[in-house]
Design goal:
The chain has 765 residues and is an alpha+beta fold. 19% of the residues lie in helices and 29% in strands. The strands form nine sheets. Strands 2-3-4-5-6-8-7 form a seven-stranded mixed barrel. A hairpin with a 7-residue loop joins strand 33 (699-700) and strand 34 (708-720). Helix 8 (260-273) crosses helix 11 (341-357).
Length: 765
Amino acid sequence: MQYSYQHIARLSGSLLFLTFLLSVIICQAQPHFPDSTEIYRDNVVPRIDILIHPDSLAIIYEDLENDHEFPATFIFNNGMLYDTVDQIGFRLRGNTSRYAKKKSFKVSFNTYHQGRKFQGLEKMNLNSEHNDPSIIRAKLCWNILRKMEIASPNANHVEVYINGNYYGLYISVENVDETFVGSRFGNNDGNLYKCLWPADLTWLGDNPDDYKFVIDGRRAYELSINKEEDDYTDLRDFIKVLHFTSDEEFECAIEEIFNVYDYLKIMVFEILSGHWDDYIYNKNNFYLYHNTATGKFEFIPYDLDNTFGIDWFNIDWGTRSIYEWGPAESRPLFDRIMAVQKFRDQFSFYMSQTLQHIWNPIVFYPEIDQIRQLISPYVIDDPYYPQDYGYTYSDFLNSYNQPLGGHVKYGLKPYILTRFNTASGQVIQNNIIPVIKYIRHNGPSVYQYVLFRAFAEDDGDGLSVNARYTVDEGIYQILQLFDDGQHFDGGAGDRIYGNYLEGFSEPTQIRFQIQATDLTGKTNLLPCEPVLIDIATYQPPLLYINEFMANNDSTIADESGEFEDWLEIYNGDTESLWLGDKYMSDSLENPLMWPMPEIFLDPGAFILIWADNSPEEGLFHTKFKLNKAGEEITIFDAPSLGSPIIDRITYGPQESDISYGREIDGSAVWKSFSLPTPGYSNTSNGINDLPGHGTTLKVYPNPCTTGKLYFDTPVSICLYDLYGRLVLESKKIKQLDLSSFRPGIYILMTEEGQFAKIILPVSGF
């Protein structure tokens, strides 16, 4: 049996149906860690070619502070993926690295084509790593951060050619921008600040504009998202908490506006890796993102080449105290967090965990050897590798095990061993107060389950986690949360705890906190002020899954000529609907699986979505496929609303080249279509009454993007429009010119009873 959630939820007053159909959804707050796309495979070294006019390249190398993006062609080849992107923007990137012989570059895929992406990316950084003779330090850092479950860019080694000339071995690093934060945090509408020297988070006054001060021609806190609004109020408020909150109130105040627990891990990473060119030591190289799903700032590390013993200050970063790692001058974020004993103990816990499981030389060295073996052949002929510091290929090999003098005070492996030994001796381990973070609920409507979810961990076993809640300001009640994979908590043993209450039949207010208690009796209760869940009647927009095909063998091909599963989305509302804050999924457990395209859909309009699990192919390609044996498809509203369901369809087994859709657009009645109408109205127009439903006629190309249609053998045809009207008749032809016809769907019939559905370019291709 098939259910259309939206129709029943709107038209039926049945409690039974509503309780059954309203979905179980979790609005995730923890960072997402998307799988590396094809361009960031790190078991090969892809080749990147840049083709640019020689005059433009000359200007780039002469005017080093120029950020103008010159037009160029980008070619990517990793042996599995070969692709060319014309008219990309190309320029220098970095600060002091602009003056190095081996320069770093930024590639922008959307400079000349707004909204365009390559494999899901708008921009790409090609970093020269000229300070690092091993050309591996930054890559190791990004790997460590991912193992520590910190939102951070993907990266891999690439060889770079410009106009056919080899420019050397680089590290390609994902750009931190709205695409990045959207993929990690599920939203990209908050302020994103790129923080460069001297970004020390010092109080400058109540005027938000005071934090727009300029150093060396750029802002120290440079806004990367919401530039038009240019509102620094949130940054001002964050810094105000750091400076004017009392010691007694600071713990609650900072937890309310900042993701403290992930930053404690970042502190561990920066201290172990010796990343002095950071916030803590050099007030430099980090991003702050105001996560609109949580209301908290996220700290994102950046520019990680000055690590693993690279030094310009004559400081031994391998032995420096892990608790007094910063300079003598104030760093309010680091200083105030470390002054709270609870946070200091949890920092020590993360330090011990990282030393044991990630930084341990027994674990770490084989990874380093594997990367060195992979990249070695590309260093031998790197023409720019020797130019800054006179390095040779022998220096490259030796740098892994011995210092080279100058700023390279340590060999890579000796630094790791030294830091492991000294940090292990310095760390002071106390029994920690349990960690609680990523507290979420599902923003339920009436009749919908009320879900609680949180991440919790401790330095011992036997952790007990509960939701402490009130209903309409009544007495406090306790709901035990579980990490067994059976209570909408994720996977068993993943430290994510969850459980639910039965739905309420009328508007209700619930306030809750998460409580975690260990076997020694130490307890954490967060947040300090209970979270309010205001349960009301949710009215979803009239956005429908209108038609789909889960077994597309020959009906319609995408822009690459592939016959993929497809979905048709219909706006039955009276207003244009913004799709950019909505999501689609084939799993109720993963409502943020695929963000819908950032477009407006007009009233009465349709778009065609390819359900092919290939989001890198474009905006209209999902991260899931349809199961022809049957499953469910769901549209979820914005995470800021709790990701409530907009529309949902559960279907059974599907036949080849038969679509399933609403008999009338947006209605509750579904039927099978032997002549599907992807991207167009399903309403019966007489097209199904056409005679001669025989075998399928082979024609190409289809969709007919060229305006010319070709047949294998001469045929006599009749061409009908979507309303069943005869619009063309021709005898014994092998080619048909459709260039003068309006875009749309047409049915082509032959004298022998063969037919084909012809698509002239449809919206969404």
